[in-house]
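Bug report

Summary: structure tokens for Sister chromatid cohesion protein PDS5 homolog A differ between web form and batch submission.
Environment: batch mode, default settings.
Steps: 1) Submit the sequence below via batch. 2) Compare with the web form result.

Sequence submitted:
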Amino acid sequence: MDFAAQPKPAAALCGVVSADGKIAYPPGVKEITDKITTDEMIKRLKMVVKTFMDMDQDSEDEKQQYLPLALHLASEFFLRNPNKDVRLLVACCLADIFRIYAPEAPYTSHDKLKDIFLFITRQLKGLEDTKSPQFNRYFYLLENLAWVKSYNICFELEDCNEIFIQLFRTLFSVINNSHNKKVQMHMLDLMSSIIMEGDGVTQELLDSILINLIPAHKNLNKQSFDLAKVLLKRTVQTIEACIANFFNQVLVLGRSSVSDLSEHVFDLIQELFAIDPQLLLSVMPQLEFKLKSNDGEERLAVVRLLAKLFGSKDSDLATQNRPLWQCFLGRFNDIHVPVRLESVKFASHCLMNHPDLAKDLTEYLKVRSHDPEEAIRHDVIVTIITAAKRDLALVNDQLLGFVRERTLDKRWRVRKEAMMGLAQLYKKYCLHGEAGKEAAEKVSWIKDKLLHIYYQNSIDDKLLVEKIFAQYLVPHNLETEERMKCLYYLYASLDPNAVKALNEMWKCQNMLRSHVRELLDLHKQPTSEANCSAMFGKLMTIAKNLPDPGKAQDFVKKFNQVLGDDEKLRSQLELLISPTCSCKQADVCVREIARKLANPKQPTNPFLEMVKFLLERIAPVHIDSEAISALVKLMNKSIEGTADDEEEGVSPDTAIRSGLELLKVLSFTHPTSFHSAETYESLLQCLRMEDDKVAEAAIQIFRNTGHKIETDLPQIRSTLIPILHQKAKRGTPHQAKQAVHCIHAIFTNKEVQLAQIFEPLSRSLNADVPEQLITPLVSLGHISMLAPDQFASPMKSVVANFIVKDLLMNDRSTGEKNGKLWSPDEEVSPEVLAKVQAIKLLVRWLLGMKNNQSKSANSTLRLLSAMLVSEGDLTEQKRISKSDMSRLRLAAGSAIMKLAQEPCYHEIITPEQFQLCALVINDECYQVRQIFAQKLHKALVKLLLPLEYMAIFALCAKDPVKERRAHARQCLLKNISIRREYIKQNPMATEKLLSLLPEYVVPYMIHLLAHDPDFTRSQDVDQLRDIKECLWFMLEVLMTKNENNSHAFMKKMAENIKLTRDAQSPDEPKTNEKLYTVCDVALCVINSKSAMCNADSPKEPVLPMKFFTQPEKDFCNDKNYISEETRVLLLTGKPKPAGVLGAVNKPLSATGRKPYVRSTGTETGSNINVNSELNPSTGNRSREQSSEAAETGGSENEENPVRIISVTPGKNIDPVKNKEINSDQATQGNISSDRGKKRTVTAAGAENIQQKTDEKVDESGPPAPSKPRRGRRPKSESQGNPTKNDDVNKPNSKGRKRAAGSQESPGGLEAGNAKAPKLQDGAKKAVPAERQIDLQR
């Protein structure tokens, strides 16, 4: 029975008294007044309690009898009694009275009712102490109130809210972990009835519930939190509207004063959502409003909240409320950095708890992975890696791709996080195979990517890759067999670039090891100034191989002092770097050295950290004799077919070949570890295999490691010699080379051995069977180079009678006339391969002799020059194919460059021969340019070539392919950097500045450009613009820094050249005028780009006498060879509309050749201008833009088609049929230009094939000369009948082809513009029908 929430009848409010006016007490209970003692009062009250407890609602007589007593117990005397036991008993009586008299209470006054319920509420505090003797009575009181719902009477009171708030606060304060479930249940019943049966919940009452959810209160009393949680769940339908109103007031209207909990709204939302999302049904749209707040801190708070709501494990908020989810995702792009950071941090939990949302997150994480803030990019990586480490299935390939990109981030912290994260994934899923083969395949790219980073310039990147390799890719703490198995299959599965990076890593570590070894050797020598200087240089070199080289220098010096003082430490270090040190010994040495240098008082010791870096780089933690033996056993298993190759995802053939390549690399860095009969027996087995690569690698391993075979392993020696002889005579060219070098390296009687190979080979040379000629030529060349004293003279007759006369000067076969400028190696004819090897033999023979006493070098250089002038067709019989001619041009240019590396031959190379060699870098064949540039760079980087050869890179400004220009620029940067660093590190180098200082390339470059065959008219603006581009291509790199006032020095050199004459043609006015004009262009560029060039030159430059005469005393040359107008045009004028590239391998002035005459005829035809407007004021950007068509259309040779227009009068000709697919870019249709280029555009992807036109053409017009000059057509031909299709379809010039279209001008098209063939009047009408293709499509 409970009290109804309705007005009481009048009779009930009046009360009832006994007939005699006295209070009736239960039998045996005397009157309870203030006259008795407290104990007596308690005793009597207990009997009253017992009576009321036994009464029920149906006892009408008793109810009437005890009504005065009920009124008496509600008097102030009892409600304010100081004794708590009295108050408790009275409260129990009152609770029973409410039960008995329900639904009508015997109390009529609202004030009295309020006092009574406040009194009862205060007594409920006694529930707190469950160990109290009176606890059962308190529990009875609570149970009675809850069962009867007595508090519902209060709904009629005006200030009932005060009672309810007091009740709720009391119950939440007394609940504790000692209460059983019944107590909690009665409390819930009591409170829920008030919430659910009332007219609403006031804010104060709501606060009394919600305050228990705040983290601070939650932590203090978890039971009150649990009580509030269950209460809210039970009353969700009623209380949801009240909660919504509260959050609406605070979040939307901003009325924080409505509640003391306003500052905790986000904590409350989080807790309410966890309790029951239905509680926040109306609140979520308000959060969407808050996400768009103008206050960044407010948005941050909402993002933090929603991150928890969306990210919690059981949350389906993202699917239930898509608008809010999409709005939240928008915060990934918030302008406020902390908001973006918080969004990214959330993504990790979301990926792990809700994989289905990964698709939504991917695009936003992609944008944030490129965020300008380092911390955000870093956290994107952490987010993805954390999820991936939990379960790889949680992240898709795109997310892993973001981490992959960040390995190249500009910030070290981000790069490091990305690299380490990927390394951990690789170890977990590939090495340990924790998620099966599918997961391993998903991240198999990681090993390659991590090793590719070794190509980066930063020493920090390199060191981290080394650390990752030693700890994650091939963990050094594995047992030897397991470690080598890991390395064996890793090496077999790496891509070629990763293999190169790994090889380079071992090479760098080995080099650093040798530096430390040399430093220890210097410690053994007596102290001297030279010794100290050498030691300082060695310390600087070592410091450059450590992080932060600036600080490392100080630490390395300190370490060097310690080494000098501590002999025991020196011996430990010597053991560490000795060739015989095992991996276990290395580990002990590193720990011992670190222990000696550690300082217990200094927990963070930067000096010790730096030394550890050094020790980790030089310690052989992977490879020793035992490891090599294990590798060889693995390879033997692969050969026998008993290995786990297929299970590891590698074919047996690949495993064998890669394993041998791995051993070959290690034979360079750890040769001593190979010295065992078992290892060499396995290598002999490889020599007998059919795989040519395997045999070649095995020979090279013998060459690198077999120095003690002759003395220690005679059985191996006797087996090896006949195999090497056989390979030198009948093996592949590479095997032959390695076999000859192997014999020379490891046998003492090498002269006898080499003679046994030389004599039969030299007698059996037969040019009629070129297939059997290549290997003998390779062997003979290397023998003559390695043992010149013995074989130089016999070789001379072979060279004269066979190599030159019989082989090079004869074309026995006719090449395939397919028009290709380059063919794959396997398609090159044997005869041409033999000729290429013959050219190499000549060079090796001369390099072995190292003298020119017999003038053989002069003859060879003339032969090579003739090869270049004739475009590779030395006999000029036109029997050789275009692709074969390209091979021979490359061989000839490379040969001259190789001879120039030997000082005695460099002196006799004439300027004309040097210029011919230089023009190979502008060859019409892309591969020729590419390979030649690589060879040039390789030799320059090693300081093998004279400085003048660096000037050749200036001609790369004319290359039509952007990648080639970019490569050339990188080569220049590298070369200049190496030369400057070499001068700094070697004090003695100052004596050789003329050959080392990069700025000294300027006079060579000026001379080279002055003799550019395309530079025919010194006042032609277009040609001067070409010259300016080439000059700036080099000067831009040189002028990056003004070191030692180098700008003024370069300007002074250019000025001094004007005071000399061209040593090549000192008495030729036109030649000198071109030289001075190039000087003026250089001065113009230097003056415009540097404000420092007018300072005094630091020293007087020295000009090379080979190219310039001595300045004459009275000679003054203050003439300006370019006009002011031209100067302005060069620097700021209109964009150059013409193609830049002209002839490559261009002819120098030669007797009997027609002079080059510039065409002045008027151009006709419907030429389409395909060049976008250029801005020459932006420096060399004009060069980049002018070749835009080349870079966006097809590709070079087989990738960069070009077109030429072939016109037949009166016919519409399909340009697809009448096509010449030439060797370079789809860049310019320049027929009659300075460079004489004949170009055709075809569809992208066509090969460089010259095809004869299908149409018949008119043969009228002046005939072409029988042998056109290299690199250009005679101008007379271009002025004749343009329909002479035979000539139009013959590009007889190389490489310098720039992207350019035609640009019409009133007087005709300027030279250098892309032009259509000139037409006679009768043919003009045919032009519009010719379909032109836009080169910039």
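Above is the batch result. After comparison, the two runs are identical; trailing whitespace caused the diff. The radius of gyration is 47 Å. The first helix runs from residue 10 to 14.
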